[in-house]
Specification:
The protein is mainly alpha-helical. It has four domains: 286 residues, 3-Layer(aba) Sandwich (Rossmann fold); 69 residues, no CATH class; 62 residues; 80 residues, Orthogonal Bundle (Arc Repressor Mutant, subunit A), CATH 1.10.10. The strands form five sheets. A three-stranded parallel sheet has the order 1-2-3. Helix 8 packs across helix 9 and helix 17 packs across helix 19. The longest helix has 20 residues. It is elongated.
């Protein structure tokens, strides 16, 4: 059973539902942040399929302070804005705020992926007074909240600490203020010079109403306050938030004991990794969501996230030779499972990845198109090859699907440095005696009837008979056909180039 359907089944009797996700737009949004967007989208749509009313919202936490400088920013230019709300920091390019600039960039991506939640800006929630009631409850419950912090997370707050950060009217910073007194109408605060290491306060001391956007609650308190104020019933987050004594535990307890409501259902998901490492927007580690969305068709990017249950990490490195070709292959298997009604789990995963009307179409494997392109075959030539493989004329849907895939193959080749050169370079001079003997045998004994797997095994066994290591065996094939030491599965490569042409090259 598809993992989102399991979640929806467990939530069905507790509806209607408000599914929510959130992100602080603090810089370029890496592809890992799409996991939250799409997990919540899958759950939302699975709920709708069960007949339960569901609404999907997405919060951009643009009222958070600027607490870090991404490596790609002008460090001197932005230093003066450290500590200000992100909605009060200028955009790197053009008009508008820093938060809007990066949020809109991300918004375009997940709308392209068929996720269309209602967008909520945290700054507007505060300024419109929609959180005023919760702010009053929070400030009136300060002792209880202090006790929850200590009991749940071991955090000891200083005497006089209040769960509210005013915006300093003097320096406009929110990350440097410390509120210490609440009289029921106003909070007294100081803009501390050394409260945090990433920003310096101005030393201003004053009072301000906590309502109408004059400040914000700290994250753990704010999380629960938003759930309560807006009626959120489902909201997941990265698994690190759900560790014992972590952010989620604190927010859950505040929801239950301060707001007297049950917290939303949690979906604690694993991260998407880049080469085994957690992605980081500020450090520039990993691919941005915008970049990856250009590299993959929307349905296949959705499939990347649908195919792995939320409890498992995804290690995604598009620069590796097999990452994207293998993803396309799995997607194709999903399509086959859906239309052949085989493998219900894979079929439903593929179905969840679709955007709009589902059409049955014939397509070519990514690796096969790649070799066609590298052999400088035109789009029309590739379509003719597809007709041969299909054994019939291609439909308009087939042609559109293959043409689109050709586009993404070319993008991948361009992005990751594959060279579109004509195979058959003079590389035999680099081969050992045994490698040359192997090619001579293959030039005679390969047949048109061999399948990709049969070719693969045949080459492996002949190399083994000659005392060659597997790497040496296939290196000989790649050097002659591609002019380099590595390549796709040899059986696939040979079939795509053509047995006759391959035997001629091995004979040269």
């Amino acid at each position: 059973m598809f993992w989102a359907d399991i979640i929806a089944k467990n939530l069905k009797d507790k509806g209607p539902h408000l599914v929510n996700d959130a992100k602080t737009p603090s810089g370029k949004v890496h592809v890992g942040a799409l996991r939250g967007v799409l997990i919540h989208d899958f759950v939302h749509k699975a709920l709708l399929e069960t007949g339960v009313k569901s609404t999907y919202t997405y919060h951009f936490d643009d009222f958070d302070p600027m607490d870090g400088l991404p490596v790609y920013l002008d460090q001197k230019k932005y230093q003066e804005y450290m500590g200000r709300p992100l909605n009060d920091v200028p955009a790197p390019v053009g008009e508008g705020s820093y938060a809007q600039y990066y949020a809109n960039d991300f918004l375009k991506v997940f709308n392209k992926l068929g996720a269309n939640p209602e967008i909520i800006w945290s700054s507007k929630l505060y300024k419109d007074g929609r959180l005023d009631h919760t702010i009053k409850i929070v400030l009136d419950s300060v002792e209880k909240i202090q006790e929850i912090y200590h009991r749940v997370s071991g955090s000891e707050k200083k005497k006089g600490w209040l769960p509210f950060q005013p915006i300093c009217p003097n320096c406009k910073k929110i990350g440097t203020t410390l509120a210490t007194e609440w009289d029921g109408n106003e909070v007294k605060f100081t803009c501390e010079k050394d409260l945090v290491v990433w920003a310096q306060g101005c030393g201003y001391v004053g009072k301000v109403s906590p309502f109408g956007g004059n400040g914000k609650m700290p994250y753990k308190v704010e999380w629960a306050a938003k759930w309560f104020a807006l009626g959120v019933t489902v909201e997941g987050a990265g698994k690190d938030h759900s560790s014992k004594g972590g952010t989620r535990d604190v927010a859950n307890t505040i929801m239950r004991e301060v707001f007297q409501k049950e917290p939303p259902a949690d979906v604690p998901y694993e991260h998407i990794l880049f080469g085994g490492k957690k992605m980081s927007s500020s450090k520039g580690l990993g691919s941005s969501a915008a970049d990856v969305s250009e590299l993959l068709p929307p349905e296949i990017l959705r499939f990347l996230f649908a195919r792995v249950p939320y409890q498992r990490a995804i290690d995604f490195d598009p620069s590796l030779p097999n990452t994207i070709p293998d993803l396309f292959d799995e997607f194709d298997r999903g399509q086959h499972a859906f239309f052949s009604k085989e493998n219900d789990d894979l079929a439903k995963t593929w179905q969840a990845s679709q955007i709009g009307e589902i059409k049955e179409e014939f397509n070519l494997r990514f690796n096969l198109i790649k070799e066609f392109v590298k052999n400088l075959k035109s789009e029309s030539d590739i379509l003719k090859e597809a007709e041969k493989l299909q054994g019939r004329a291609l439909s308009k849907t087939d042609e559109e699907a293959i043409t689109l895939r050709i586009k993404y193959v070319k993008l991948w080749l361009e992005k990751f440095g594959e060279k579109m050169s004509i195979p058959g370079m003079d590389t035999k001079k680099d081969l050992t005696v045994n490698q040359k003997e192997l090619l001579a045998i293959l030039a005679v004994e390969l047949t048109e009837e061999m399948t990709e797997d049969e070719l693969q095994n045949f080459i492996y066994n002949k190399g083994k008979d000659l005392g060659l290591k597997p790497a040496e065996t296939f290196q000989a094939v790649y050097l002659v056909l591609l002019g380099k030491e590595q390549g796709p599965k040899a059986g696939v490569l040979i079939k795509s180039v053509g047995i006759t042409q391959v035997k001629e090259k091995f004979n040269q």
